[in-house]
Amino acid sequence: MHVNRLATGGLVVLLCLPACRLLPFLGRAEDPAAAPAREDASARAVLELQNMRFDGERLSGRLLVGVETGSITFDRRLVENVSVELKSIVDCTNGQPLAFLEVDSFPAPPEPDELLTLTPGYWYGADVRFALFDTHFTGPALPECFAGELRLRTESGHIPGRLPLRVERSVKPPPPADAAGAPAP
After folding, report:
1. CA–CA dist 66, 58 (Å, integer)
2. What whole-number distance in Å separates Cα of residue 17 and Cα of residue 134?
């Protein structure tokens, strides 16, 4: 079973209050003066994931974003599976694709002050967390190690940076108990 998307009961319900901005395309005109500067489609970002931690279900760490060439504009909130994605997840030992969760997010569009334009010489960092595996949805065996690719997506949808990852479990599960209930040596 390969799980790529997760929704509650197969139905997604959006409730919108008067201040709701989830659906900006319904009758909202964009102010051209408020639009961010056009980014360079050939811009290249540099990604680094520090303090990486994987407990068998979730991957977390501090994502640093820099620019090698050009300029990029992205949502500084770094919303998982929207502006930063983890793709191509395979088992480290045999290279086989792993069933993993890719939870849909529906964040409000970024406010103008939530958009960040980076140029060479500047870095931005934020904590990220990906819920990837769950015994109920992806099966009882949680991986000890996986490889994947972390991608940054700009406000225009361009992917200027990719980071190959090899992730090993940092929190080891307890040893199995013997028939009498005592932990194995």
Report:
1. 25
2. 33
Q: Which residues pair with 145 in a beta bridge?
A: 168
User: What's the burial of 99, exposed, middle or buried (CB within 10 Å: 0-12/13-18/19+)?
Assistant: middle
Q: What is the pLDDT of residue 86?
A: 92
Residues 6 or more apart whose Cβ sits within 8 Å of residue 172: none
Report the distance separating Cα 143 and Cα 133, nearest Å: 8
- Given a cut of 90, whether residue 63 has pLDDT beyond it is yes
114 three-class SS:
helix
Q: What is the DSSP string of 2-28?
A: ----B-STT-------TT--S-TTTT-
Q: Count CB-CB contacts under 10 A for residue 66.
A: 19
For residue 136, give the 3-state DSSP assignment: helix
User: What's the Rg (C-alpha) of the chain?
Assistant: 20
From 100, 79, 78, select the one nearest 88 (Cα to Cα).
100
Helical residues (DSSP H) of the chain, grouped into ranges: 135-138
CA neighbor of 84 nearest in space, from 63, 113, 114, 67:
63
Residue 101: DSSP 8-state: -
- Model-level pTM? 0.69
pLDDT at residue number 122? 95
Which residues 6+ apart lie within 8 Å of 173 measured at CB? Answer: 56, 142
CB 61: neighbour CB atoms within 10 A? 19
